[in-house]
UniProtKB/TrEMBL annotation:
<protein>
    <recommendedName>
        <fullName>TRAP transporter small permease protein</fullName>
    </recommendedName>
</protein>
<comment type="similarity">
    <text>Belongs to the TRAP transporter small permease family.</text>
</comment>
<keyword id="KW-0997">Cell inner membrane</keyword>
<keyword id="KW-0472">Membrane</keyword>
<comment type="function">
    <text>Part of the tripartite ATP-independent periplasmic (TRAP) transport system.</text>
</comment>
<dbReference type="Pfam" id="PF04290">
    <property type="entry name" value="DctQ"/>
</dbReference>
<dbReference type="GO" id="GO:0005886">
    <property type="term" value="C:plasma membrane"/>
</dbReference>
<feature type="transmembrane region" description="Helical">
    <location>
        <begin position="154"/>
        <end position="174"/>
    </location>
</feature>
<comment type="subunit">
    <text>The complex comprises the extracytoplasmic solute receptor protein and the two transmembrane proteins.</text>
</comment>
<feature type="transmembrane region" description="Helical">
    <location>
        <begin position="21"/>
        <end position="39"/>
    </location>
</feature>
<dbReference type="InterPro" id="IPR007387">
    <property type="entry name" value="TRAP_DctQ"/>
</dbReference>
<keyword id="KW-0813">Transport</keyword>
<keyword id="KW-1003">Cell membrane</keyword>
<dbReference type="GO" id="GO:0022857">
    <property type="term" value="F:transmembrane transporter activity"/>
</dbReference>
<feature type="domain" description="Tripartite ATP-independent periplasmic transporters DctQ component">
    <location>
        <begin position="30"/>
        <end position="181"/>
    </location>
</feature>
<keyword id="KW-1133">Transmembrane helix</keyword>
<feature type="transmembrane region" description="Helical">
    <location>
        <begin position="51"/>
        <end position="70"/>
    </location>
</feature>
Length: 189
């Protein structure tokens, strides 16, 4: 069982480490878009796409960087009491709080799946079966949702990316849960 736990932790941590390291560079993409936005507004006609594209890049940066942040322990914590606790007490506290986080992320994931199904033209009550049907080819995409702005980009790509990011974050939370279990059993991770 411990070998399976270590294998899961290693695989999930490796995937999220790579994705997080790549997502890190999204800040430079965001800076480039905002720089172009400033230049085009100052010297040329303002670009219609820069504001929304900056928002999309920021969402991707934030969502794909979340699992990496949890893995590195750089997420925000109230360190007033936590810093003074023993490793065992921290593990118990983290064990409980990560379960609450997993529940919250599962609710967000379901909402993201529903929202993505809507943006792909589905108005029914079974969004997960619709998305599964799209993946296996039994369902067809309906009228695609677009942004109401002048640029009018499709919304489904960023919503699909949010689903991927939330799923990776849930996997990382399970990894952290298993790390806490192993710490409580006396292993040093």
């Amino acid at each position: 069982m411990r070998g399976l736990m270590h294998g899961y932790i290693g695989a999930v941590d490796a995937v999220n480490l790579r994705i997080g390291r790549i997502a890190m560079y999204g800040i430079f993409v965001l800076m480039g878009i905002l720089l172009w936005s400033s230049i085009s507004k100052t010297f040329f006609l303002p670009s219609l796409w820069t504001l929304e594209m900056a928002q999309f890049v920021m969402v991707a940066y934030y969502i794909l960087g979340g699992p990496y942040s949890i893995q590195m322990g750089t997420n925000v914590r109230m360190d007033l009491l936590y810093g003074e606790w023993s490793t065992r007490k921290k593990a118990w506290f983290d064990l409980v709080t990560v379960l609450l986080l997993i529940f919250y992320l599962c609710v967000l994931l379901y909402g993201g799946i529903s929202s993505t199904a809507y943006s792909l033209g589905y108005w029914g009550s079974e969004p997960t079966s619709f998305l599964a049907g799209i993946l296996i080819g039994t369902e067809e995409v309906g009228r695609l949702e677009r942004s109401p702005t002048a640029w009018r980009p499709y919304i489904w790509p960023i919503k699909a990316l949010m689903i991927v990011g939330m799923f990776l974050m849930i996997l990382q939370c399970f990894s952290e849960f298993l790390k806490d279990v192993l710490r409580l059993k006396g292993e040093d991770i």
